[in-house]
Amino acid sequence: MATGDIGLIGLAVMGQNLILNMNDKGFNVIAYNRTTSKVDHFLANEAKGTKVQGAHSIEELVSKLKRPRKIILLVKAGPAVDDFISQLTPHLEKGDIIIDGGNSHYPDTIRRVKELETKGLLFVGSGVSGGEEGARYGPSLMPGGSPDAWPAIKEIFQKTSAQVQGEPCADWMGESGAGHYVKMVHNGIEYGDMQLIAEAYDILKRGLGLHEDEIADIFEKWNKGVLDSFLVEITYNILRFKDDDGEPLLTKILDQAGQKGTGKWTAVNALDAGVPVTLIGEAVFARTLSAIKSERTRANKVIVGPEKEAFRGDKKQFIDDLEQALYASKIISYTQGFMLMRETAKELDWHLNYASIARIWRGGCIIKSVFLGDIASAYEKNPNLESLLFDGFFKKAVHKAQPGWRRIIAQAVLWGIPLPAFSTALAFFDGYRSDILPANLIQGQRDYFGAHTFRVLPGKENPRLKAGEDIHVNWTGHGGNVSASSYNA
């Protein structure tokens, strides 16, 4: 008799911890791994004394599961997912559910949902955030895909997830690839948060000349206010961690940041969608700049920047300004991320619940923070909110932060300390609130050299320049009057 509530394929650290988490919540889990010796090792060690059962083949795994069968894949994104799907499908029946819990690219999930639904099977692409600890004790879960799958997996997902104020950090994101899409944007925002924190560290270290222990104290204080978050918390723990010689270990880590691609996917998606997600883009480029370490070292020897002068101002005020600059830049990053989700949902006819997304990010995941509760509140008040900057709470917060935000960036420029994420956040803010931008000159240039046409600013029409028309002007007097293409804003 089948007794398994859910099966899980992939016994790397995330898979093992998620199995133990589900077991703790009262679910009977069947574990399988391609290398079956790992199954035996897991059952004899980490899972010893639990109700977890093992399987040594796909057939055995499927045979031990209650209908509708529910199987989570926690394997490397890409061909491995398709390979396991092809192994599973011959043994499954109509209504059975395959769940991909890896970091798959959302177009692959869209494809898999369609392919499996034609076979009568249900497919879910679920973001799983929180790393090793989250998987073990409660992650943030972002499932999406075949809607009929949600009632069957809802209890398992919501009991397994992190809980914040009695609410599960797991909810249905939407149809098709929505779950993996939301996780992708989450990871892009994570890139932005990490870059902003790194820039704040840099300006405290190189700008004010503070020791890691002093900087840790500052981050710990910030973590008691509006910046209260998992990433700020781990930052001051990292800053305080000492090597065997008593020196901060952080000072011995090579300044070359790695990445697995989800931040890049978010930036590419933003470019494709025409949404100015500038902060995540800069965070990705900052990592790629860090990667060319040897070239930067050569540049350091031949390119001269400004002479660094000791800070003579009010240090406490400066640190308070930096806190506000970090907070305001973070608001901009999330504003951009939610703008991107809104545009993609419109394009793909998804029904994303932005308040729910913010709520499930409050716990279990890498970007969990008090701040997300404020975002949830904004979208609960107005589910159709066009921009977080139109919400009264965030509009007031950014207004309060502006003076310090500008002072920090100005001082960093004078010192020659790069703040790409802080700077692009402020540039977006100033651009977003500008009624008039110099894009009129760009349109004039495009029409001049390529006859790409332009449109007339409302109120400036005349018999020659008509409203709503794509206009080409013979700027030189010896060019033609045929335009190259229609107007494209």
Q: What does this entry look like structurally?
A:
The chain is an alpha/beta fold. The protein is built from 19 helices and ten strands. Strands 3-2-1-4-5-6-7-10 form an eight-stranded mixed β-sheet, with helices on both faces. A two-stranded antiparallel ribbon has the order 8-9. The model has no long low-confidence stretch (mean pLDDT 95).
What's this, in brief?
The protein is α/β, with parallel strands linked by helices. The protein has helices at residues 13-24, 36-44, 58-63, 79-88, 106-117, 131-137, 150-160, 178-207, 212-222, 230-240, 262-273, 278-291, 293-302, 315-348, 354-360, 371-381, 392-415, 420-432, 439-450, and strands spanning 6-9, 29-32, 53-54, 70-73, 97-100, 122-129, 140-145, 163-164, 167-168, 174-175.
Secondary-structure class: alpha/beta
The N- to C-terminal Cα distance equals 62 Å
Mean pLDDT: 95
Percent range for β-strand residues: 5-15%
Helix content: 40-55%
Q: In terms of per-residue confidence, which ranges show pLDDT below 50 for 5 or more consecutive residues? A: none
Strand order of the largest sheet: 3-2-1-4-5-6-7-10
Main attributes of the structure:
8-stranded mixed β-sheet; 6PGDH_C; 19 helices; two-stranded antiparallel ribbon; single chain; 489 residues; 6PGDH_NADP-bd; alpha/beta
SSE topology:
Elements: E1 6-9, H1 13-24, E2 29-32, H2 36-44, E3 53-54, H3 58-63, E4 70-73, H4 79-88, E5 97-100, H5 106-117, E6 122-129, H6 131-137, E7 140-145, H7 150-160, E8 163-164, E9 167-168, E10 174-175, H8 178-207, H9 212-222, H10 230-240, H11 262-273, H12 278-291, H13 293-302, H14 315-348, H15 354-360, H16 371-381, H17 392-415, H18 420-432, H19 439-450
Parallel strand pairs: 1-2, 1-4, 2-3, 4-5, 5-6, 7-10
Antiparallel strand pairs: 6-7, 8-9
Helix pairs in contact: 1-6, 8-11, 8-12, 8-14, 9-10, 11-12, 12-18, 14-17, 14-18, 15-16
Pfam families: 6PGD, NAD_binding_2
Function: Catalyzes the oxidative decarboxylation of 6-phosphogluconate to ribulose 5-phosphate and CO(2), with concomitant reduction of NADP to NADPH.
EC number: 1.1.1.44
